[in-house]
Design a protein that fits this description.
This protein is mainly alpha-helical. Helix content is 37%, strand content 9%.
């Protein structure tokens, strides 16, 4: 059985959301790409106040986490 590509679906939703945001007068520079389906570790970047996430190659870890979520 293959794992659904949750991260690709997340990206599709965000792309659609950003287009609607811009169509309704939003500035693309102000669009938040925080990800609505991200699952995985979030950490501070280099001791700064910036929180970041690193996706695994081909999103395999994130897709598996979602596939196995209760």
């Amino acid at each position: 059985m293959s794992t659904k590509n949750y991260m690709a679906e997340n990206q599709r939703i965000l792309d659609e959301w950003q287009k609607a945001f811009e169509k309704n007068g939003g500035n693309a520079d102000n669009f938040s790409w925080d990800g609505i389906l991200f699952k995985g570790e979030v950490y501070r970047e280099g001791g700064s106040d910036n929180w970041v996430r690193k996706e695994s190659d081909n999103d395999t870890v994130e897709n598996e986490l979602w596939d196995n979520a209760p």
